[in-house]
Every structure is written in structure tokens, then in C-alpha cells.
Amino acid sequence: xxxxxxxxxxxxxxxxxxxxxxxxxxxxxxxxxxxxxxxxxxxxxxxxxxxxxxxxxxxxxxxxxxxxxxxxxxxxxxxxxxxxxxxxxxxxxxxxxxxxxxxxxxxxxxxxxxxxxxxxxxxxxxxxxxxxxxxxxxxxxxxxxxxxxxxxxxxxxxxxxxxxxxxxxxxx
Length: 172
Prior knowledge:
Layout: H1 2-25, E1 37-41, H2 43-68, H3 72-82, H4 92-97, H5 100-122, H6 126-146, E2 147-151
Parallel strand pairs: 1-2
Helix pairs in contact: 2-3, 3-5, 5-6
């Protein structure tokens, strides 16, 4: 009887300790203060969108280097690849998930790349191209200040993402 009493007391103490620990010492994660609009996509879609954004940055970086070396052909080539032709093959299922303002900002960004390519091809004025890149980066800042990605459901595994040259998503 004494042995059972000791076991019950130890069990109660462990349970009480766990409850006190949980409610007094373990703080739940604070609510996010990130007020940006959530764009809910699958994990592969999020990865593709982030890859496209990195490609944009690589285009801007390459353009700045080419600008410093007065290589207008390189600027035209880089920016044309990030222009509207980069949107060809984007799956409609992904486009349908994106908020209208996000889509419009994306189209505007691709058009700005086309404008930089056109300037590099036509006049090649470094001051104009620098100003256009500034406008392009304003779009990037607006997007990153306004939106964040959230993953819907469980992450898909084994998805072939080798179709679209920018997004790497298969058309649906």
C-alpha cells in the first residue's frame, strides 16, 4: 500500500510539474505582426515564384555590371529574358491563385524589363536605363512590402518542375 501511494504521489507531482511548466514557462509563439497580404500557394509554386524573383535580381545585377562596361547588348538580352516573354507558359492554376494587385504588379515588372531592353537597343542612354532600373526596383520594394507567401496544405514531393524556364512549373 505504501509503495502504491509513493508511485501515485510521484505520478501526480510529475503531472503537476508538466502542467505548471506548460502554462507558466513555455510561451506560445507570439502572433505575427506581419501585416502583408498572404498569397497562398503550394510549396513548389512558392519556390518557383521566389526563383523568379531571384532571377529578377540577377538581371538587375547583371544589368548594372553591363551598364558600367557600356555593354548595351548584354543589357538588352538580360532584360528581354525577364520581360513579358518570361510569362509564357505560366500555369493558369497559379495565376488564378494570385491576388489581382499582385498579378498587375508582376505584369508591370515584366513590362519594365522590356522597357529597359528597348532603351538599351534603341538609344542606349545610361542615365535613362539607370532611372528605369530605379523604377523597376520600386516595384520590387512595393511587392515585398505588400505580400508574403503562405504554403497551402502539405508540401508536394517529387513534382517535376522542369517545364517553364522561369517558374519551372508545368502548364495545366
